[in-house]
Specification:
By secondary structure, this protein is α/β, with parallel strands linked by helices. Helix content is 44%, strand content 10%. Strands 3-2-4-5-1-6 form a six-stranded mixed sheet, sandwiched between helices. Strands 7-8 form a two-stranded antiparallel ribbon.
Length: 317
């Protein structure tokens, strides 16, 4: 484990173990680590991957990955494609790109983050410049690097102490430099279940009205998502200055997945295992999943999250 991983891991583990410690104090410490590590590029490059090894983002390649790997998410695909490719093309952005991805488990939030990382860095999530802050597993992947185009992924925002995330506000704001370091080319991605109920309500209303889910517009979702995250006491965004000061560029809704989307996930998994697609098995696995609402059975309650393990049952030697 890198020194930065150990320090940041302790910082984010502490509020779960020692409840008496103020989240603001922990946040200030986190901010200090962020600034310190990113300030020594020459030293860092002696021991790790260098920033110059990043790949040039291809809008066409990103679109192909989103279309072939992310199912049932026309809103998320459009926002991610335009926001990320536009940001990368801008040589002098005024602030970091900040995306907040919202939706139920299994709808593709983590997968979308993976696609973004893989299209910017050859190593994807394993790159030294992609840092996953995972509160559920209580440990940190990566630390702050010397690369201006770093990607920071904050998973399980619902489990983060309210107020702690505000410590990084200066890094997301419209500042040329913070303590001599520029964060304007960085990308911050937050993953959260906050607002998932509102997303489901809108999707279900469209379905009951006989409308196509593809007719749902971002304007139908985004305002309610920001309000939901801001007012949710169980969210790390509760009364956060990041929302209050409009520092999150996009609130990206991930719609609940339908039966047809599960079948798409199963087919992709079969191909990734080198198997011939067997439509009978695809149907049997999809029908084993549970759906909601109970009477109408429209949406999968776990998305595509468990279809892979269920597929193992049919190919168990």
């Amino acid at each position: 484990m890198k020194p930065g991983e150990a320090v940041l891991g302790l910082l984010l583990l502490a509020p779960l173990v020692v409840r008496a410690v103020e989240p603001i104090s922990l946040g200030l410490a986190l901010a200090g680590v962020l600034t310190g590590y990113i300030s020594y590029p020459r030293l860092y490059c002696l021991f790790a991957e260098c920033c110059g090894q990043k790949r040039s983002l291809s809008r066409e390649a990103l679109q192909k990955d989103l279309d072939s790997k992310l199912f049932g998410q026309h809103l998320a695909k459009k926002v991610i494609l335009n926001a990320v490719s536009g940001f990368i093309r801008n040589p002098k952005p005024k602030k970091p790109l900040t995306l907040s991805l919202h939706g139920w488990t299994g709808t593709g939030k983590n997968f979308a983050s993976k696609i973004i990382a893989e299209n910017i860095y050859e190593g994807g999530l394993k790159s030294d410049y992609v840092h996953l802050f995972d509160q559920l597993q209580l440990w940190i992947r990566g630390n702050v690097s010397a690369c201006a185009r770093s990607i920071f992924i904050f998973d399980e925002m619902d489990k983060m102490h309210a107020g702690l995330i505000d410590a990084i506000k200066p890094f997301l704001d419209y500042y040329d430099h913070v303590d001599g370091v520029s964060y304007q080319k960085a990308i911050f991605i937050f993953l959260s279940n906050a607002g998932a109920e509102r997303i489901t309500d809108v999707a279900l209303d469209f379905w009951r009205s006989g409308k196509q889910r593809e007719d749902i517009k971002l304007k139908d979702m985004e305002p309610a998502l920001s309000v939901s995250a801001f007012n949710n006491k169980n969210s790390g965004f509760w009364h956060s200055s990041l929302i209050d000061r409009n520092l999150i560029d996009y609130f990206v809704p991930f719609l609940p997945l339908e039966y047809k989307h599960l079948k798409m996930c199963i087919r992709v998994e079969m191909r990734s295992r080198g198997l011939e697609v067997d439509e009978d098995i695809v149907t049997r696995v999809a029908e084993e999943m549970t759906f909601f609402p109970r009477e109408e059975r429209v949406f999968s309650d776990k998305g595509c999250k468990t279809v892979f393990t269920k597929l193992d049952y049919y190919y168990d030697d």
